[in-house]
Design goal:
heterodimer; A: 2 domains; 10 helices; 12 strands; disordered N terminus; disordered C terminus; B: 380 residues; mainly alpha
């Protein structure tokens, strides 16, 4: 009895007390029972998207579709004028792994201005350092490559539970709800093209270098160099692969800085860090990314796994609880069933104790 | 006195309510045929913003909580040694068996790639970090345990005395498992939504979700026992089990008080109370949840009320509503993926959910009439 109750109460008390002891910021709340945050793979590959370079041509959207064999998407509200000529996805979907969206404010006169301006944002899988989709997948269908860090889905394992769709803080994995045999679809950083030494479709097609490919370590250095630039400076923006290993050689894109960068590289710390990094002149929450004081710098998976490991590591706590329960049950089952059992056995009976 | 403490109720099976339930189940079956032919998008309003709808939130998350009657009664009778509640055990176990089985069936219906569903049984594919895996395996194991726990009832009906006695000798192991597994599984269903992070409103997002789901498993598990006992006494014209239920009411009222207290303090800690006064859908839904809990306490507070079947029934109903809304809020209403996504269940989804519960009521009626489930009524 004592084992069971103590175990159980200890679990409850520890969960409650540790959570109650911390203050209200997500940072500190996350610290209770948290699993160690995951580190970046040194050779991890990723993207650096620079919103100030993007001209909104959407070549990347078309290239992504052709690289991944995805069809055009016609939004329902456009069906009267768009018979299928224009790919007009409004958001990421099972048919659209990559999309350019736009922030608009007031007169929308100036590019990269928060007020009376507009700014582009490219959305695709951010290939988190500590992804929720990897943590939550019950059948290991979501995999994070140990070297490249690319997050991919194996449809031969996936059971279609869609927990990854539900949990992803960036709304990336999508499920094909149409048709009887749908699958999870998401950007896999064109790993099939990388295997052939080619660039991901979106990078390959980007004329300005707004989407740059490379080792995340190199991309971070590049990003930090850029945020020190001031309006009026001229900078030679590399295009394609920052290291020049993937795809053919490209000349850099020389450009005069017009809008001041925000002094922050999105993706370095947010939710434990991502392999797709963002630079922008407008606030990242305006661009629709999870950003702000309520977004922790560790992945949510470190919280759920912290609880899961606390309760179930080595199945020690459940085994101890079960032992206690068995001891109690053994004593009490006999007590409450003995008369009934005799009844069943010989159809005679004492009265069953009801008190 | 009767040779057994439990006896079949007897009576006609095909009654008007039974036919009504059958019609709902039939309609659900038609919808499900469409679901498997045309896919989830064909009959549901599920989307990439709301990939989980009422088939998960109600059929599974709430359905299995309603299946916690077996847990609550087993815990009281066999673990805390309150043998007086023993007469409630069989009906409670049976409800649990139905609740969990139908919850599992709902999951299989909802699986987008159901033909690969067996993958979850392949240990080499297991991701032990996945809270959902833990949840799924516990449901599966618990259903097996429930079938075994319910075994004596079948053996009694079939007159297999030796089998019943043999099973009884090892029953304590399954009784223990039957307490542990649902507690593991129910608490994990709270951990599942912790992963939603900022997408779940601070009115519900908390590390205490794990514990809160255990609280609601207990309150709903109890409430369904009281609810069902009262309803079946009326419907099957049996005496009320008031004496037993009133003490249970007292215990569960205190569990609910602690739960509401924990929620109150937790929301203070998280600074989430202002959100409750915004009067948007989430805030209204929060108040329905919280006030129904307070109503349950108010209804059951006085000992006089706890001795009255009507108050027991109303109190249990309010307690059910509290747990129902808490879980619905955690999985759907409190969840906001942003970017303009919205969800309201389709008629087809609602019909299937009704069918899931209708089939449980049908099974309940068949079982109590045919099998020795309910406590035998003593003739004076």
């Amino acid at each position: 009895m004592s084992i069971n109750r103590r175990q159980f109460l200890r679990g409850v008390a520890a969960t409650g007390a540790s959570a109650a002891a911390v203050a209200a910021t997500p940072e500190e709340a996350a610290a209770a029972l948290q699993r160690e945050p995951r580190g970046r793979a040194p050779e991890a590959l990723g993207l650096l998207y620079d919103s100030t370079l993007c001209v909104g041509c959407k070549a990347c959207v078309a290239a992504c579709k052709s690289a991944n064999g995805k069809p055009r998407e016609i939004s329902a509200d456009q069906s009267d004028w768009n018979a299928g000529t224009w790919d007009s996805a409004k958001t990421l979907s099972a048919k659209t792994y990559n999309i350019i969206m736009v922030y608009q404010n007031g007169t929308m006169a100036a590019k990269d201005a928060e007020t009376d301006g507009f700014a582009f944002i490219k959305r695709q899988c951010l290939h988190c350092v500590d992804p929720s989709c990897i943590s939550c997948c019950p059948v290991s269908a979501m995999q994070k490559d140990p070297v490249t860090g690319i997050v991919s889905n194996d449809p031969n394992r996936c059971i279609g539970c869609r927990y990854c769709v539900y949990a992803c803080p960036f709304q990336v994995p999508k499920f094909e709800f149409e048709g009887a045999f749908g699958r999870i679809s998401k950007c896999e950083l064109c790993r099939h093209r990388l295997a052939k030494g080619e660039l991901p479709g979106c990078v390959d097609s980007c004329p300005t270098g707004a989407t740059l490919f490379g080792r995340v370590a190199d991309l971070r250095t590049e990003a930090h160099r850029r945020i020190t630039l001031k309006p009026g400076d001229t900078y030679a923006y590399p295009r394609g692969d920052i290291s020049g290993k993937y795809g053919e050689h490209r000349e850099p894109h020389e450009k005069v800085i017009t809008a001041a960068y925000r002094e922050e590289v999105y993706g370095e710390t947010v939710l434990g860090g991502t392999q797709a990094l963002y630079l922008s002149a407008v606030s990242f929450d305006k661009l629709g990314l999870p950003y702000g004081p309520n977004i922790p710098t560790s992945g949510y998976a470190s919280q759920t796994e912290g609880i899961q490991h606390f309760l179930y590591t080595g199945m020690i706590a459940p085994a101890a609880a079960l032992t206690g329960l068995i001891l109690l049950a053994r004593r009490n089952v006999d007590k409450h069933h003995s008369e009934a059992d005799e009844d069943a056995a010989d159809s005679q009976g004492g009265s069953h104790g009801n008190a | 006195m009767a040779t057994h403490e439990h006896a079949p109720v007897g009576g006609r099976l095909v009654t008007a309510p039974f036919i009504f339930l059958f019609v709902i189940v039939f309609a659900a079956a038609v919808i499900l045929t469409q679901r498997f032919v045309f896919g989830l998008g064909g009959v549901t309003h599920l989307s990439d913003g709301y990939p989980w709808g009422i088939w998960i939130a109600i059929d599974l998350i709430i359905g299995t909580a309603l299946g916690c009657g077996g847990l609550v009664v087993a815990l009281l009778v066999y673990i805390v040694n309150q043998g007086e509640y023993h007469p409630l055990a069989r009906a409670a176990l049976m409800t649990s068996l139905f609740g969990y089985t139908m919850g599992a069936i709902a999951v299989m219906i909802d699986l987008g790639r159901w033909w690969l569903g067996y993958n979850i049984m392949l240990p080499w594919l297991w991701n032990t970090n996945s809270v959902l895996l833990e949840t799924a395996l516990c449901i599966f194991l618990y259903i097996i345990v429930l079938i075994i726990e319910f075994g004596p009832t079948f053996f009694e009906r079939l007159g297999l005395k030796e089998s019943r006695r043999r099973l009884h000798r090892v029953m304590f192991v399954f009784t223990a498992l039957g307490v542990l597994l649902p507690m593991m599984h129910q608490s994990s269903m709270g951990t599942v939504v912790i992963l939603l992070g900022y997408k779940l409103s601070p009115l519900w997002q908390s590390q205490l979700l794990t514990v809160n789901f255990l609280f609601t498993a207990f309150t709903m598990g109890f409430a369904i026992v009281a609810f069902e006992s009262t309803l079946s006494s009326v419907a099957l014209k049996r005496p009320f089990e008031t004496r037993l239920l009133s003490r249970l009411c007292y215990i569960m009222m205190w569990v609910l008080i602690i739960f509401l207290g924990v929620r109150f303090i937790d929301l203070l800690r998280l600074g989430a109370w202002p959100l409750a006064f915004r009067m948007d859908v989430q805030a209204i839904s929060f108040w329905v949840e919280y006030l129904s809990g307070i109503a349950a306490i108010a209804l059951l507070w006085q000992e006089r009320n706890r001795m009255h079947p009507r108050y027991i029934f109303l109190g249990a109903s309010a307690m059910l509503l509290n747990g129902f809304m808490y879980r619905l809020n955690c999985y759907l209403i409190g969840y906001d993926p942003g970017h303009g996504w919205s969800y309201y269940p389709s008629t087809g989804e609602i019909i299937v959910t009704l069918g899931i519960f209708a089939i449980q009521i049908m099974l309940y009626l068949v079982f109590v009439k045919q099998l020795p489930v309910l406590h035998a009524v003593r003739k004076a």
